[in-house]
Amino acid sequence: MATAIDAVRASARDTGFRDTLQRWLPKLVLAPTALCALVFIYGYIGWTALLSMTNSKMLPSYTFVGFDQYVRLFENERWLVAAKNLVLFGGLFIGVCLLVGVLLAVLLDQKIRSEGALRAIYLYPMALSFIVTGTAWKWILDPGLGLQKLGQELGWSSFRFDWITDPDRAVYTLVIAAVWQSSGFVMALFLAGLRGVDPSIVKAAQLDGASLPRIYWRIVLPCLRPVVFSAVMILSHIAIKSFDLVMALTGGGPGYSSDLPATFMYAHTFTRGQMGLGSASAMLMLGAVLAIIVPYLYSELRGKR
Amino acid sequence: MSALEIRKVNKRYGSVHVLKEIDLSIESGEFLILVGPSGCGKSTLMNAIAGLDEISDGSIHIGGRDVTHVGPKDRDIAMVFQSYALYPSMNVAENIAFGLEMRGVDKARRAQEVARVAKLLQIDHLLERKPAALSGGQRQRVAMGRALARQPQIYLFDEPLSNLDAKLRVEMRTEIKKLHQRLGTTIVYVTHDQIEAMTLANRIAVMKDGVLQQFATPQQIYDEPVNMFVAGFMGSPAMNFIRTRVVRAGSHYGVSVRNGAGRDVVLPLPERGNGLSAWVDREVVLGLRPEQITHVTPHRLERPLVTELPCTVEVAEPTGPDTLILIRMNDQEVAARIEPHAQAPVGSPMPLAFDMSKAVLFDPATQQRCH
Amino acid sequence: MSLESLSHAPRGHARTLIHLVLIAWAGFYLLPLVVMLLTSVKPLEEIRSGTLLSLPHALTFEPWIKAWSSACTGADCRGLERFFVNSFAMAIPAVLISTAIGAVNGYALTKWRFKGSDLLFGLLLLGCFIPFQVVLLPMAQTLGWLGLANTIPGLVLVHVIYGLAFTTLFFRNFYAGIPDELIRAAQLDGAGFFTIFVRILLPISAPIIVVCVIWQFTQVWNDFLFGVAYSGNETKPVTVGLNNLVNTSTGVKEYNVDMAAALIAALPTLVVYVLAGKYFVRGLTAGAVKG
Known about the structure:
The structure holds three protein chains of three kinds. Chain A is mainly α. Chain A has 14 helices and no strands. Chain A folds into two domains: 16-51; 76-304, MetI-like fold (Orthogonal Bundle). Chain A has helices at 2-13, 16-51, 68-75, 77-108, 115-123, 130-140, 147-153, 170-195, 199-207, 212-223, 225-241, 244-249, 261-271, 275-304. The two termini of chain A are 48 Å apart. The model of chain C is unreliable at 1-7 (pLDDT under 50). Chains A and C meet through α2, α4, α5, α6 and α7 of A and α1, α4, α5, α6 and α7 of C. Chain C: Belongs to the binding-protein-dependent transport system permease family.
């Protein structure tokens, strides 16, 4: 026995190179990813920033114009509409999602027998592409053949639901479809949060004589503040990036009344030959995301330490 | 040739100095225990021996070979982890054989080794099971089996018993001791449990704040602690520390104590060849273990350095085989260990015999032993 | 008082009300799916004369067949089939590659930490959150230089690069929960970087692999932005194909075909959701909350 192990022992000694390799392997393995991140994320952000300060039109040009493109952006009626729409759409989308999410989560938390099935139904839209969601809702909201017609056929002859063709209301149809897609997810976040609340707290409150709604309002929901926090982060992130849904549901129309920054950026960069302006709008989108995400990441990473 | 030699080892994490000038060495077949409170550096030292943590300076030698810059797998050591660290996807036999497989031992040999180890640890019937299907004690055995199969020069045990319940812990402790006696292996064992340290070790290294406080045999550590930390850390219940004053009594020295009744008495100190004259009339801390204060029996009083003092029982804590009572001396609580039948009722006087033959004195300023 | 009466659940009328509210919401969530299904199996005639929810009198699968093989996008009438195939050709390699790299990354980042590994992770993490519009144009240029513009390998590359942040995050969080002692034990046993990964960690990584694969598949399959920006006529993914098909304005608007097409485009991710919903939700919450 001993001889076999001794032989192995001897051969194991001459391993200087392998040891060095082993020490470097983790770094070697991560190097491509690090390089990718540096080039394709940070490098490209820099590149876009650069383009946003040039007068690039159909093709990139590197004639510097300083912040002219940003100035132009804020003189551009369509951008102002897109930015205003984002505030409106984002605010409503986040608000309604949170409300629906909390409500459904609290109701589902009441030991509902069919909880599994209901949860599955609430969440399936999250598996769909925004393009599919947009296509479906475009059809449902069609004033000629959709919900409006259904309402009228059911006997409510004056029923009108033509928001999708109304320049003042088209943006609200985006809210409906987006809430449909994402609120189930918010519900899942809250439900997970509720399940994480120490049940003995609830028992203690019951022994103190608190009613169920009071227990939720005063004790359980305040525990969910971190969930609200992350839900707002995620939803605002979705809102700022929203592109597919607009393309499929309203196409930004009627006119450009339901444009969002993402569609504005795409249209100007790829179809209208305004690369400089498009890049400037992309940079502003990044700025908006960073303004929300960085404090969040900072607190998350600090909390873990 | 020493099996393990650690020379002037330092370890710093940034500005934190976690190991300071550690120096120790053990012979082949010895059972070394690294003991100390959490954060004392004992686990860091073990990881340094294993090669899992690099040291900042100093050197480590295993079997005479300098392994300071050798990777963990080539140091010829095996380790039993606190969490056992059994590979969850492998069954017991595969767990035990993995180290051999990695070292290129052929399959037949591996099977032989697994069988040998399994028999040794009585886990033959568990070989096909996955770790998740084992109890705590069984996992502990498998973790030991994994180390034994490798037949390394040194075994490292990192608090291996701390995840077991009290009863199993005692059983496994005995088992480890038996195994060590039978196989004559060299073991380095980390624990924060001073009873484990006393029962298992040939040699104990007591650590605190990254500094090796004392490195000696268990009995030496117990009887001759070098400072108040070692004295207080080893032994349960802990050694009594009584603030007192050195007095000269003729050609001898003693310490003056005042018992609960308010009477000053001089307890004689043993002669240890060191001049206590410098300490006369200065404050010292008298270290006296509870078992050195006990109920009075005639023949006990015949021994030298034993003094009878009237005391008052303030609290009594029966433990079964003996009873711990608290008395008051120099306005401090002092524990004494007596036989249950000898205990006087709480609140009533009781004479106690103070055996000063093993009494030690500490310098209150430096906390170092001065007598 | 018995312990039972303490359990916090409303009973009686309150309970019925709760059920009603929950079921009503389920109706809201199901409505589009039901409408799509009903519309997709009705002849155009019935769509015009009936309502969204009226059941088909003459059940037909013609719209499905047409959507699949002969619906027109502009003048090109080859249906959704080729886009569907494109999406698979894009998603499968993109998912496999990004998951594999993410797994090794997560392992290296948690079990072999080095100076700068936290910084690297932080840099990657931010990559999960940037709006892709900000890299869209430079990437288009790069793909052009690489000769990958309008090709499926180009789309695969893009999805791998921008999926890495997420896959790494998944595996990092999973491996962070595996005790380091396991790796140290294997190191002492003589196993190296890749041996430990393959022999010790991979066999216990099944749950996170499933989560990651599902998440990535859903992301890649449902992507529209990269698809519309970087694909050519023959390499469009199904989301782009669907959007073009629905928005084609020539000829009669065939709502039933549109809905069938939408369902076809949604089918793969729906199937994944039905088969592995648990993992899907876990991915959503893990990817989102642990950000």
